[in-house]
Prior knowledge:
Layout: E1 43-44, H1 52-57, E2 67-68, E3 77-78, E4 82-87, E5 93-100, E6 106-108, E7 125-128, E8 133-139, E9 142-148, E10 153-159, E11 166-172, E12 180-182, E13 186-190, E14 194-199, E15 205-210, E16 216-222, E17 225-230, E18 239-244, E19 253-254, E20 260-265, E21 268-275, E22 278-285, E23 288-297, E24 305-312, E25 315-322, E26 325-332, E27 337-340, E28 343-347, E29 350-353, E30 355-359, E31 364-378, E32 384-397, H2 399-403, E33 410-411
Parallel strand pairs: 1-11, 16-20
Antiparallel strand pairs: 2-12, 3-4, 4-5, 5-6, 5-7, 8-9, 9-10, 10-11, 12-13, 13-14, 14-15, 16-17, 17-18, 18-19, 20-21, 21-22, 22-23, 24-25, 25-26, 26-27, 28-29, 30-31, 31-32, 32-33
Amino acid sequence: MKTMQTPKATRRSRRPLAGAALLLAGLLAGCAASPASDASAPQSATSQTATSEQAAAQQTAEAPALWSLQPTYTSAVPGARGVYEPYSGYGEVFVATCSDWETGTQTVLCDKPGCTHADASCPAALGPAQGADSRVYEIGDRLVWMVLGNGDGTADISDLDGGDRTPLAEGIPVTNTNWPYTDGAAVYWWDTNRFIRLDLNDGGIQTLYETTETDWWPVGVSGDTLVLRQGSMDKAGGVLRTVDTAGNAAEPTPLPDDARAVCAKDGRLYWLAPAGAGWAVQSRALDGGEAETLAELPDLAAESVPWADGIYGGVLCFSANDAGQTRSYALDFATNTLNERPTAYAIDGELQPYSILCGNDNWLFVLTGVERRTVTSIGDDGALLTYQRGASQIGIMTPADYAAASLDARPCTRLDAWG
């Protein structure tokens, strides 16, 4: 069913966001709201009202396509210019940074002369180091700054360099920040059991679709539709449903009973299925039809647990836990070539392949290693504490090179990982 929310509008001051940000883990149509007293004041989460018919009427036969703003579960967010992450090494707040795709250099999105980036006065401040989840999304010629995760989120908007940052919305009801999407005009989230839209022009917020059913998980996009799978992500089978940017939900359709590591893109569905003593990569049209086998993995144990890493630049990437060992693969659709990625570094004695932290059709941001150091600090009681601390080593490579099993990732120049 579709629902719309309708609380009153409020406004916020034009100061940088104060909310917590995200750490890099070694892991996107309704009628206008009533105008606020000031044209620049953000709209609250429920200041928009719309009916299903009005939302649907705004859609056309050529509705803009969705794309994922955050294709993995890490805090790294890919954009056209680079990868956006928070950083906490300067002081009491997280600040937004960007690692340029071309140079690999990570810089703070701040042009304030003499700024120490240590507190909320920094133009790039995202908020304190503890609290809600934060993101910076690059959408067209602007950045969208979000503090989400507690059901009462806020959004700012700025130029690509972080300048002219102004409030856009508050009271954003999103509690699960893992699945954001955009069509260029709005940000959408799948928030556990509802599809939420934030308009990037007027800050209006709508709940486009909501269900009382549980265990629906996004597995990709196709045109202007979000593709959802119902069922435990670590189990086989389940059913699919699509929801478009007008909030129209299709009837569920069954998945093959043995399908695992499911992902969807551009009208196609992809998954891994047991095949003899190993596995096979299979595909079919999103709306049904016969499955075809694209490649086989006879040496991947049948007891392995696979998962999808995403589709980037025509390359299907997936991994599996094979008796405790992570194994990663890439299937190039253009050549129908499947390669296993080589291992490159060790964590606690276990060899690991590169891990995709995020990416787009042109570049991948990959974990290429972990450096460990012994760190000494002073505890609350004044005693010396000695412990091991790790810092991620990051590289940039193309999807084609990843598919070819290359280890030639351009090293990134990171801000002090030990700060």
